[in-house]
Design brief:
The structure is a homodimer.
Chain A (H helix, E strand, L loop, with lengths): L1 E5 L4 H9 L6 E5 L5 E6 L6 E7 L12 H4 L3 E4 L4 H10 L5 E5 L2 H6 L1 H10 L2 E5 H8 L4 H9 L5 E5 L5 E5 L5 E3 L13 H16 L4 H18 L13 H15 L2
Parallel strand pairs in A: 1-2, 5-6, 6-7, 7-8
Antiparallel strand pairs in A: 3-4, 8-9, 9-10
Helix pairs in contact in A: 6-7, 8-9, 9-10
């Protein structure tokens, strides 16, 4: 993990990551406030309005990549200023798969840099609104095909409770189900969980075949289904791998015909 | 088919149905105007506002069921005044499966009758907004489970381009994909096509096993994907069964993991 947090960040949360064997050599604790996003979710939780985005210590962040990370084969450039994503990308030697996430905030304010990033990565993960923002296409599938022309091999379209779709030039789309949750509490971070678990699955299996890409998305979907069940990391903190596996198999049964 | 049209209805459209071997003994042509609905679709085509609903000859319609129809085993009560749906239901002897469709207009104006119908049928087909209207549940799955308690064996939740879901007490939900269409022209009638093709598949196979229910939904989904590609019956009029089969198989490939 390469990231920056402010000196307001809780020690317990860092300890938690350590105990889960996350390599924190690239985690910088800087003077100032941690990045902060505030938003309002509509009642159906599929739409949200941003109230404020405070960059805090992100503003002056100059990511320094530890030597052990420079040879990483799977790289997820999570949502952050695209100029910083570019700086990180330039320091990684020859990753096998580069995944890229962003959000409406950067597409609005840093469009050129976002487009440059899209042209340099393998896998772009966006929700349907962000695809519309970038391509002006109401059909996310048509929009994803426009984005493929900019260079990436894969586009993942996230649609919240409606699941997601994988679009690539090589094969027909994959329609990935969302695990149905009757009483979601907080969708914040579901997209990050999805992207993290998806790339984590690819790195763990070291397999980017079409079937592995599909299964990685389903693991992302399943992991995100736990995120929305509680606020913050509430549910993720005590999750066990067998619970992920169990929802994965359930989704196989729920989609079979 | 049991229905009424006004004397403004085109002869060509009746001829078309005859040529497709639709039994039209139950089709009444009455003096006055055919039912007319007018609405405005939002740009993403997933939401629409009703501008006007003119019942026309529906207003005085008293459905008379031909003897040959009274012994039908599969009955689809398509969207119409629930009082009329009830009259039809009362005249059918002992159908094996009764499917029921309705719309926001009737839920608003005839709620008690809609609820009575739900308690009397086997399969209820509604979109996510209608389920919210009936149950006040933002989660369509939670809403569908509330509807199951009113009596039906199956609830189908339609979600437009996001597919549909089958919910029943007997087994876990089925997540049914929508066939992705890049440039839909007109979604009007997609829900009717879905319901008609679904019940048509069940009647043709005479099989209401869990697997057959799932496949019936996928055929409904595939048939609806053709409806939205053109205005009116444009695309449905020249469709061949092998085209339906081909999209069915494509959907199997698009959902496999």
């Amino acid at each position: 993990m390469v990231a920056v947090v402010g000196d307001d960040f809780s020690f317990e949360d860092i300890e938690f990551l350590k105990n889960r064997n996350v390599d924190l050599e690239g985690l910088e604790v800087a003077e100032g406030q941690t990045f902060h996003w505030e938003g309002l979710y509509h009642e159906n939780m599929n739409m949200r309005d941003t109230i404020s985005t405070d960059l805090g210590v992100f503003e002056g962040f100059d990511p320094k990549i530890p030597e052990t990370v420079k040879t990483a084969e799977f790289l997820l450039l999570a949502n952050i200023d695209p100029a910083l994503q570019l700086k990180v990308l330039d320091q990684i030697k020859s990753p096998r798969l580069i995944a890229f996430d962003t959000m409406n905030f950067w597409i609005e304010g840093r469009r050129a840099e976002v487009e440059e990033m899209i042209s340099k990565v393998d896998l772009v993960i966006l929700n349907d609104e962000e695809i519309f923002q970038l391509t002006n296409e109401y059909s996310p599938l048509a929009g994803a095909k426009m984005l493929l022309e900019m260079g990436p091999k894969f586009i993942v379209i996230k649609k919240g409770e409606h699941g997601s779709m994988l679009v690539s030039d090589d094969s027909e789309p994959f329609i990935c189900p969302a695990y149905p949750i009757e009483a979601p509490k907080d969708p914040t971070g579901a997209g990050d969980t999805f992207a993290g678990a998806m790339v984590g699955y690819l790195a763990a299996t070291n397999d980017v075949s079409p079937l592995s890409m599909r299964r990685a998305m389903v693991y992302g979907s399943v992991a995100a289904s736990f995120t929305v069940e509680e606020f913050g990391l509430g549910r993720l903190k005590d999750i066990e791998i067998k619970e992920l596996d169990s929802r994965f198999r359930e989704l196989q049964e729920m989609t079979e015909f």
